Amino acid sequence: GGGMGILQLLSPHQSNLVPVLGKRTGWDDTFHKREECAGLENDWITITGSNGEYPLFQVLPKCASYLQVKLRRVTDGGDHDVAICEVVGNGIWDDGLQSVVWSSENNTVVGSSDNNSPSSSSSSTPTKPTATPLDPSSALYTGQLREEGII
Length: 151
Hints:
The protein is mainly β.
């Protein structure tokens, strides 16, 4: 067994979130990543996992991709713990649904969100996530972070 989580691959327009998400520990009770992201106009939303049900997860909209992972074990990595996880779901952001659309084993699509925003259309039909190659135009790479002086 183990915990479940969502690994989010940021998009290039989210580079300003790296100091908030990557340079502070999540164990610091005095620093709240969700609030800091909201202050940078990147509010988190609630989605269901790849099975279309619980658990609920808090994620950033418009990431390049989303991987649902299940913790298998934790090992010592020196100054960090290393989490060994199994990928149990993969998804992409769907602008029409304003949510993550998950790919499933039987090639059906599961779209889920608790957002009932007026901009989302009930006639939106999710498209199956595809294995589109990610490059610096669609995913955040360290080269961009170096150019922007973030790392």
